[in-house]
TrEMBL record:
GO terms for biological process: ubiquitin-dependent protein catabolic process. SMART domains: Cullin_Nedd8. This is Cullin family profile domain-containing protein. It holds the Pfam family Cullin_Nedd8. Belongs to the cullin family. Pathway: Protein modification; protein ubiquitination. Transmembrane segments: none annotated. InterPro entries: Cullin (IPR045093), Cullin-like_AB (IPR059120), Cullin_CS (IPR016157), Cullin_homology (IPR016158), Cullin_homology_sf (IPR036317), Cullin_N (IPR001373), Cullin_neddylation_domain (IPR019559), Cullin_repeat-like_dom_sf (IPR016159). PROSITE patterns: CULLIN_1, CULLIN_2. One of its GO terms (cellular component) is cullin-RING ubiquitin ligase complex. GO terms for molecular function: ubiquitin protein ligase binding. Residues 257-532 form the Cullin family profile domain. The keyword Ubl conjugation applies.
């Protein structure tokens, strides 16, 4: 700490000699003595040379007041400024030789200015205060230091270069004297040369450094490492602002780092690493990616586009790969859950990203017409058949809710209809005139979902009696097993008919069971397979195997064991043949003819005259399911035959609406 001795003691630190004030002595009134002037000269010299002052400060202050009372204030102010300027000029060689001591000399200089100002305070508060164009004694000292020391080209160059060198060393991981940097930069800021002498060059060097670093690290590191490096660099630069840089540097400095490490490499970062981050569910890095890209102009729109493209690509592979049909629905549910979590956790629930995800799902899920709807219907059917065995009621509800979200993305949803006449709901909505069609719709709950094709079967008396009184077949039968005693089996009608036969005998062949029950052969094979080849095998099959053959024989499994009392035995789903799939597709298209016809008539009624290409384009915009151009042409021809519209006689490709 710098200690200034007022009386006595030795010199604390020498900063050179000062021209004597006596050289500038003015002519004063006759009662102004030579002793008074000498006191002031000695005081200023002692202060500038850091030696002890011989006179009392109050006495010196009074001497200045006396001079001002003799109307010599302008001369006194001018000569004091000249003395200070000569002193500063005499020190410049030291600053040129040792620029890093500049801050130490600056602090000493400030202390000396405080002492000088305290002696000449009367001059400062009277003459200077009354003349607004004159700087105060304090400001005069700062101006002289700035003009002759800091603005000296050699001093400024070596000082700024030294500061930049220290900052570069710190950026490379070395430890530097932050207090020294804070003092030097604080001096530049106080003297109002921080921006011109330091900040511009500092930002230029920073821009050069991070431009080169960004190019190099994008080649050397993977995306997660690079993102963490960028985040760390931003933290370091913010810390420098707090520690020693001026606050005004924050915005341009951080913008420079973000531009060179992020803005120049946005596309490269996303091309190189977004798919990997999403595939591996790297939520920490995805959240960091979103946070960093939100700082850069155009960052989030770019990320949004890549996010949308990823979902379309990944989802399209699930839907358009026939080998994945078996697990398509489950994979879609898992993929949707994963993307929902990313949007909620990593992308700050940004509405734009959520809407882009919905749009992408709607796009890829309709790339393969009809199949997703068909597989979703089968998936729901299997879940409802399993009931509470595979999941609790609450879990099942959650699964069905998720399935319906996926299902809403599908344009052609008619595969999901249970009733053959469901197409008439859709058809009536497209009619402009009221219709006389009578329609009754029954909503099937889980307990009434059809599990087999209706057919005539032979009901034993006990089942017929139950049906007569309750209007439905029993949903379960009680069975007694040697090892575990009584169990309640939840079974279908066909399963019930088969199990009741073993009250009358111990073993039956498949042909004997078919004759006794009247169940159709294919349905009987599936029923026996569920009872003898599934997870809950209440019947034994001989010989053992997964499929039921003509010569197989069945007996009651007395050794059956299960941890539950109430056991649901699931039906085996019938596999759909290629011919059945083709038939289903044809039926769906036939049902959609009503929608196509209604859309054509509606468009022609509004437009009156339209070319074929424009009509087809309008149809694609209005129809919410995929359709081939050839099929549209057939429906147009049909409407022409039925006099809803006609071709132009001179231009066959032009159509006119017929009122």
């Amino acid at each position: 700490m710098f200690i200034y001795q007022i009386t006595g003691g030795s010199k604390v630190c020498g900063v050179g000699a000062t021209p004597s004030l006596v050289h500038y002595r003015p002519k004063l009134a006759e009662n102004y003595t030579e002793d008074t002037w000498l006191k002031l000269r000695d005081a200023v010299g002692a202060i500038q040379n850091s030696t002890s002052i011989k006179y009392n400060l109050e006495e010196l202050y009074q001497a200045v007041e006396n001079l001002c009372s003799y109307k010599v204030s302008p001369t006194l102010y001018k000569q004091l400024r000249q003395v200070c300027e000569d002193h500063v000029q005499a020190q410049i060689h030291q600053f040129r030789e040792y620029p890093f001591f500049c801050t130490q000399h600056y602090l000493i200089f400030l202390f000396l200015q405080i002492m000088i100002r305290s002696i000449f305070l009367f001059l400062d508060r009277t003459y200077v205060l009354q003349n607004s164009l004159l700087p105060s004694i304090w400001d005069t000292g700062l101006e002289l230091f700035r003009t002759h020391i800091v603005s000296d080209s050699a001093v400024q160059k070596r000082t700024v270069e030294g500061i930049l060198e220290q900052i570069e060393l710190e950026r490379n991981g070395e430890t530097v004297d932050r207090s020294l940097l804070r003092s030097l930069l604080g001096m530049l800021s106080d003297l109002q040369v921080y921006k011109d002498s330091f900040e511009e060059r500092f930002l230029t060097e920073t821009n050069r450094l991070y431009a080169a670093e960004g190019q190099r690290l994008m080649q050397e590191r993977d995306v997660p490492e690079y993102l963490h490096h960028v985040s760390r660099r931003l933290e370091e630069e913010n810390d420098r602002i707090v520690s020693y840089l001026d606050q005004s540097t924050q915005k341009p400095l951080i913008s420079c780092v973000e531009k060179q490490l992020l803005g120049e490499h946005m596309t490269a970062i996303l091309q190189k690493g977004l798919s990997t981050l999403l595939d591996e569910n790297r939520v920490t890095e995805l959240a960091l990616l979103y946070q960093l890209f939100s700082k850069v102009k155009g960052g989030l729109p770019t990320l949004l586009q890549f996010w949308r493209d990823y979902i379309k690509s990944f989802g399209g592979e699930i839907v358009c790969t026939p080998e994945k049909d078996k697990d398509m629905v489950q994979e879609l549910l898992d993929f949707k859950d994963k993307m929902d979590n990313v949007a909620q956790t990593c992308f700050a629930r940004n509405e734009s990203f959520i809407n882009a995800m919905k749009e992408a799902f709607e796009t890829f899920i309709n790339k393969r017409p009809n199949k997703p709807a068909e597989l979703i219907a089968k998936y729901v059917d299997s879940k409802l058949r399993a009931g509470n065995k595979e999941a609790t009621e609450e879990e099942l509800e959650r699964i069905l809710d998720k399935i319906m979200i996926i299902f809403r993305f599908i344009h052609g949803q008619l595969h999901f209809c249970v009733c053959d006449k469901c197409i008439c709901q859709t058809y009536m909505q497209n009619q402009s005139e009221p219709s006389n069609i009578e329609l009754t719709v029954n909503i099937l709950t889980m307990g009434y979902w059809p599990s087999y094709t209706p057919m005539e079967v032979h009901l034993p008396p006990e089942v017929s009696f139950f049906y007569f009184w309750y209007g439905k077949t029993p949903g379960g039968v009680q069975a007694y097993f040697i090892l575990q005693g009584k169990k309640e089996l939840q079974v279908s009608l066909f399963q019930t008919l088969v199990l009741l036969m073993f009250n009358e005998g111990e073993e039956f062949s498949m042909e004997e069971i078919r004759t006794a029950t009247g169940i159709e052969e294919g349905e009987l094979r599936r029923t026996l397979q569920s009872l003898a080849c599934g997870k809950a095998r209440v019947l034994n099959k001989n010989p053992r195997g997964k499929d039921v053959e003509d010569g197989d024989r069945f007996n009651f499994n007395n050794d059956f064991k299960h941890k539950l009392f109430r056991i649901k035995i699931n039906q085996i789903q019938m596999k759909e043949t290629v011919e059945e799939q083709v038939s289903t597709t044809e039926r769906v298209f036939q049902d959609r003819q009503y929608q196509i016809d209604a859309a054509v008539v509606r468009i022609m009624k509004m437009r009156k005259t339209l070319s074929h290409n424009l009509l087809v384009s309008e149809l694609y915009n209005q129809l919410k399911f995929p359709v081939k151009p050839g099929d549209l042409k057939k429906r147009i021809e049909s409407l022409i035959d039925r006099d809803y519209m006609e071709r132009d006689k001179e231009t066959p490709n032009q159509y006119h609406y017929v009122a």
